[in-house]
Specification:
Helix 2 packs across helix 11, helix 3 packs across helix 4 and helix 3 crosses helix 11. It is built from eleven helices and 15 strands. An eight-stranded parallel beta sheet has the order 10-9-8-11-12-15-13-14. The model has no long low-confidence stretch (mean pLDDT 96). GO terms for molecular function: hormone binding; pyrroline-2-carboxylate reductase activity; thiomorpholine-carboxylate dehydrogenase activity.
């Protein structure tokens, strides 16, 4: 038996590329709507003391053939030297089930989530994107600031974080990078961060609503990234006023019951918009992409990394 291939985090980060990840994620979202995937809502195990394990198996059929994989993600918020989210993907041969590689997936999780938001923004709000507001400067907040700055030409990118020092650190890091042509600003309050923002990203997962309808531009687009059964970072009134889109129905039925219970009717999956099987929202309307994250996004990026690694060994 050949030695098991392990593609570590450093190697994955070397191979990740925004245009390639965007393409693969756009395809994965579309495949969900075309029924070319097998996946279910993730299984979540409460490990107590605020730690969780997520298990996300999936199979995807796309231009590259069939891909079979399973991500195991451990969320240990108390980690100090290691990231709070530690993830790995087992990539299998889709014909035999034989394990092909173990691929570090902390970076993949961050990149594929931000790329899904970029795809959603392309289909829901691809014009007049001048101000981006990032709520939460953790791993997802940081990668969304980078990814959305890469794909959309914002004039200003604002960051709010509960612990302000962290927002200032992120803004300093981004301002020191000469490839960005926009200005970066750390905001004192959520309200001032949201004011007049065209695109908003929420990444706190907090159980208290911190994004209020009155603070939003009526035509804003929100990528709602925080996840969890108790996540309430966006006020119910915002959902009631918005056209809300999801990544996959199976996950939404399981993890978004609190929205279904207050009468929110999801307009459809982002993949349905990509396929053209549903109408886009009216121009200048408030829109939300409620992102949960999907196994097949992980499978698609893991497969891309595996192929790039094998080609460039
Ligand atoms: N949709 C998807 O596909 C994915 C979603 N996620 C979700 O995204 C969210 C962020 O993940 P990640 O960036 O990796 O986590 P991090 O631990 O890196 O960052 C967490 C962020 O949330 C903030 N925060 C936590 N609690 C509160 C609170 N009560 N009020 C205000 N801010 C708070 C933290 O602020 P502070 O610095 O002050 O502590 C920090 O900015 C989580 O809900 C996670 O489950 C993650 C991966 C994929
Ligand atoms: O999609 C994902 O990998 C996750 N969503 C919430 C925590 C991990």
């Amino acid at each position: 038996m050949s030695a098991l291939l392990h593609i570590n985090e450093n190697r994955v980060l070397q191979l990740l590329d925004w245009d390639k990840v965007f393409h693969v994620i756009e395809g994965a979202l579309e495949s969900v709507a075309s029924n070319h995937v097998i996946q279910s809502a993730r299984s979540v195990i409460d490990l107590k003391e605020t730690n969780f394990m997520f298990v996300m198996p999936g199979k995807l059929r796309d231009d590259n053939g069939e891909t079979l994989g399973c991500k195991i993600a451990c969320h240990f918020p108390g980690n100090t030297t290691l990231p709070p989210l530690m993830a790995n993907i087992l990539l299998m041969d889709a014909l035999t089930g034989e394990l092909q590689a173990v691929i570090a997936a902390t970076g993949i999780t961050a990149w594929r989530t931000a790329a899904a938001s970029a795809v959603a923004t392309k289909y829901l709000h691809n014009e007049n994107n001048k101000i981006l507001a990032i709520i939460g400067a953790g791993a997802q907040g940081r990668i969304h600031a980078i990814c959305l700055s890469y794909f959309f030409k914002f004039k200003e990118v604002r960051v709010w974080n509960r612990n302000r020092e962290r927002a200032v650190r992120l803004v300093t890091e981004l301002s020191n990078d000469s490839k960005w042509k926009c200005s970066f600003k750390a905001c004192e309050t959520v309200q001032s961060c949201l004011s007049d923002a065209d695109v908003v990203v929420t990444t706190t997962g907090t159980d208290v609503s911190i994004v209020k309808l009155d603070w939003l531009k009526p035509s804003a687009h929100i990528n709602a990234v925080g996840v969890g059964l108790d996540c309430r970072e966006i006020d119910d009134e915002v959902y009631k006023a918005a056209n809300v889109y999801i990544d996959h129905w199976d996950g939404a039925k399981e993890e978004l019951k609190h929205l279904i219970d207050i009468g929110i009717q999801f307009k459809g999956q982002i993949g349905d918009l990509i396929r053209g099987s549903i109408k886009p929202p009216p121009k200048n309307s408030l829109t939300i992409f409620q992102s949960l994250g999907m196994a097949v996004e992980d499978c698609a990026v893991a497969r891309m990394i595996y192929d790039l690694h094998m080609q460039n060994k």
